[in-house]
Amino acid sequence: MLKISALLLLTEPKFPxxxxxxxxxxxxxxxxxxxxxxxxxASFAACHTGVADVNAxxxxxxxxxxxxxxxxxxxxxxxxxxxxxxxxxxxxxxxLPSSFPMLIRLMPVIKGLSDSIETMQFxxxxxxxxxxxxxxxxxxxxxxxxxxxxxxxxxxxxxxxNIDAELLLTEGEHHLVIISDDYRNESKRFIVEKxxxxxxxxxxxxxxxxxxxxxxxNTQVFFNNQEVIDIRTPYPTVPGEHQVRFxxxxxxxxxxxxxxxxxxxxxxxxIDVVVSENE
Length: 279
Fold this sequence. Notes:
Strand order of the largest sheet: 1-8-3-6
């Protein structure tokens, strides 16, 4: 008498698995049974309905503990740091995903067992344990008139070559920087969650410098001696040295301004009243 279950990896997992635990449960305490893990060495051959002929090689076997439930951890990546404990067993070395499907076989090691063994209920369930990884999908949105210009994406101080692919990262906070001569430089911090994909949208901006004015009412603003008509709208300019003049009636203030590419400047005119007391 023997019982066999198959462990399958149906697709390549999006996030690397650390282990594939198999939970073995029985309706009675297991005595004199072996847990056997086998690798299939030949394809299934169907004999007739409900029956298959399988060739498999033994990878590991060990006695099943005398308890109602046992956990076997089957590591499928190197560097998994799994250890056997009173609560879980790691019976094998690394079983690579290419080795699947694997078979779990339960077999008595002695003869003369009671007839009730034939009707004993076994249940094998599996649950993947993922590495502490998530992913980020970088979505770039371009200015309407500036599409397809070159830029460099850096994540955690490493240049990313293919930004169209999902980037695997450890869970936690990360830093993204975009550097370009044709767009404004961008800097973002984002958090990656374990086994989840984060869609991170980045809006690239026109690198034309902008100047924003904040002035009292009835103030005229001149930029390089040219009056700014709509002071509520950011004023576009070019990199270099400029001059801003504020005119309030007959009183004027002149301020030099050094402008760099891809920067936004806010120029405020404030009027204050100072009261002093003399004895």
